[in-house]
Specification:
Elements lengths: L3 E2 L2 H9 L3 H11 L6 E2 L2 H13 L5 H13 L3 E2 L5 H10 L5 H12 L5 E3 L2 H6 L3 E3 L2
Parallel strand pairs: 1-2, 2-3, 4-5
Helix pairs in contact: 1-2, 1-3, 4-5, 5-6
């Protein structure tokens, strides 16, 4: 059996448990024996965005939730970039998670500098450089 994919809404219901019926369906799906799931970078970025901006979770809480997601044995995601991106996000209140992700992708792929017009990103992230 191959892998299946999970949408951001499944992740949110699974970890927030805010809609009980959907939580139970999501739980049953991800805990089914032999099931493996791919979680795209986009789904994780959207997950963080929604947790922060819609639900008001702190960066530390979000970091714990993303770490928990990545630690599931049957979830396959980008474990190269997300641990360092979530740590950069946790440490730098001025940066969005999207910016942290972009910076870590640039660093890992040795595609630096990451050119930006974003002053905060250029000041807080060593791989970013402001285009003036």
């Amino acid at each position: 059996m191959g892998r299946e994919s999970l949408d951001t809404n499944i992740l949110l219901r699974l970890y927030l448990k805010d809609i009980p019926a959907q939580f139970e369906l999501a739980k049953r799906l991800v805990e089914a024996p032999g099931k493996k799931f791919t979680i795209s970078d986009t789904a994780i970025i959207e997950y963080v965005f929604v947790l922060e901006r819609h639900y008001g979770f702190t960066r530390d809480q979000i970091a714990e939730m993303v770490t928990a997601l990545m630690s599931r044995g049957n979830f396959y995601c980008n474990r190269t970039v997300f641990p360092s991106a979530i740590e950069l996000y946790r440490r730098n209140q001025a940066l969005s998670f999207e910016d942290c992700y972009l910076a870590e992708i640039a660093r890992i792929q040795e595609a630096t500098p990451l050119w930006t017009f974003d002053k905060a990103l250029a000041q807080k992230c060593p791989v970013a450089q402001e285009l003036k």
